[in-house]
Amino acid sequence: MTGFFQTASGQRCALSAVMGLRERKKLDAWRTIRSTALRLISERGFDAVSVEDIAAAAGVSRTTFFTYFPNKEAVVHDLDPAELQQWRELLEDPRDGMPLWDALTEVLLGLARLLEQRLPLQKRLFAQSPELCQSSRGPCASYQPDLEEWLSRRTTDGDDLRTALTFSTAMAACTTAIAAWDPDDSYEHFREILRDCLRWAGAGLARPVS
Amino acid sequence: MTGFFQTASGQRCALSAVMGLRERKKLDAWRTIRSTALRLISERGFDAVSVEDIAAAAGVSRTTFFTYFPNKEAVVHDLDPAELQQWRELLEDPRDGMPLWDALTEVLLGLARLLEQRLPLQKRLFAQSPELCQSSRGPCASYQPDLEEWLSRRTTDGDDLRTALTFSTAMAACTTAIAAWDPDDSYEHFREILRDCLRWAGAGLARPVS
DNA sequence: TTCAAACTTGTACTCAGTTCAGGTTTTGCC
DNA sequence: GGCAAAACCTGAACTGAGTACAAGTTTGAA
């Protein structure tokens, strides 16, 4: 999530198009490190795996690990560059005509669609290594900076406090839905939970002024 | 916040009553370490002060620091034992007859009253050392475990998902109010912001079923 | 072929957090 | 007052995260 692939070649990298050898290697390395890390962590638990273990198992140096991931937790949270591109596309449109709550709902449901492959594994990791739950702010918080940037691109339609509250309430709904979902259930079920949470939480916030 | 004074003498310690020399010294040490730490951190910033610096300046060993505070951040977040006692008293009553949202509102407004002395300084620290904002989950999150325990003591009146959502929405309102408040304004103003946030966020959640 | 930019790596460092064995202080009790 | 046990403090030694940097290697383009 934190500026490596984003800033790498100026623009976001053309994933499906022809990439230089350099970029292809980088992507490979990223994926190798990540999948190695996830395998080790799901086997032994987050704290029982050191960055050194991960680097060694991925055939890379410890230093290199930290050029790909800003910290150990990021290897669990960060998006694959391909997903990242979809996520950026989802955020391109500030949905300016739409009331904030509706726009947020749309973006978060879109995000849920993107996470279909990752979220089940991630929840299992969290369940296995409670140390992750403590130290990190949950899967959802990784997207908060991007969302804040998105929010700032919308033309502000009034009360800042209300805007901030609406935003954080939507994030809370998201976090709650993730927490409530059992990863053994269908992903569709998760999306229903999320829809419910957003609907309930938004009931009082959906319309501009009270 | 994390089990030192709580578990020390079995019960919570009788602060105003006669305490043994041992407990008085412990409390003194706690306060010395804390105030020393806050002074240094507000002078130099969170990351520029090491635990060793704090311990040395407080006339105590590094090891001792970690018996009083579970980690470096806790020195900013943890409650003074006197405040902690008031906070526990506030949570004694599960407010069982009351709808969840109203009970939460009451507890959180009570918490706001307790924090009058601490919050302004704390916000200033956060403003000065952005590294704190990143790594920690905000002042509000310190109280979450206690609140969850309080929540679990209430007789559950229905839908777990809705309960969880209500809870996290109230926390979000609290966090938002803290973020929105300017510590140079009056504390009363903060409490108004918090009331507004709770009212707005709760508009859709206040009544049991939708 | 050549050169600059991008990437990797080992080394060496700082600091958070843990463990533990000994020394010191407090307390309850005689 | 004196004593033993419990509680407390401390220094030393350790693990592991994260950073800085200089030297080496690979890639892309001319």
Which properties best describe this structure?
homodimer; mainly alpha; Arc Repressor Mutant, subunit A; Tetracycline Repressor, domain 2; 12 helices; 65% helix; DNA-binding
Which SSEs are present, and which pair or pack?
The structure is a homodimer of 210-residue chains.
Chain A: H1 5-8, H2 21-44, H3 51-57, H4 62-68, H5 74-77, H6 81-92, H7 100-114, H8 119-128, H9 130-135, H10 144-153, H11 160-180, H12 187-202
Helix pairs in contact in A: 2-3, 6-7, 7-11, 7-12, 11-12
The structure holds a DNA duplex (30 and 30 nucleotides).
**What oligomeric assembly is this protein in?**
homodimer
Q: What percent of residues of chain A adopt helix (DSSP H or I)?
A: 55-70%
CATH architecture of the largest domain in chain A: Orthogonal Bundle
| Cα end-to-end separation of chain A | 37 Å
Kindly describe this structure.
Two copies of one chain form a homodimer. In chain A, α6 (81-92) runs antiparallel to α7 (100-114) and α7 (100-114) runs parallel beside α11. Helices cover 65% and strands 0% of the residues of chain A. The first copy, chain A, is an all-alpha fold and 210 residues long. Chain A starts with a helix and ends in an 8-residue tail after the last helix. Chain A has helices at residues 5-8, 21-44, 51-57, 62-68, 74-77, 81-92, 100-114, 119-128, 130-135, 144-153, 160-180, 187-202. The first copy, chain A, has two domains: 7-77, Homeodomain-like (Arc Repressor Mutant, subunit A, Orthogonal Bundle); 81-202, Tetracycline Repressor, domain 2 (Orthogonal Bundle). Chain A binds chain B through residues 137, 160-162, 164-165, 168-169, 171-173, 175-176, 179-180, 193, 196-197, 199-206, 210, and chain B through 137, 160-162, 164-165, 168-169, 171-173, 175-176, 179-180, 193, 196-197, 199-206, 210. The structure holds a DNA duplex (30 and 30 nucleotides).
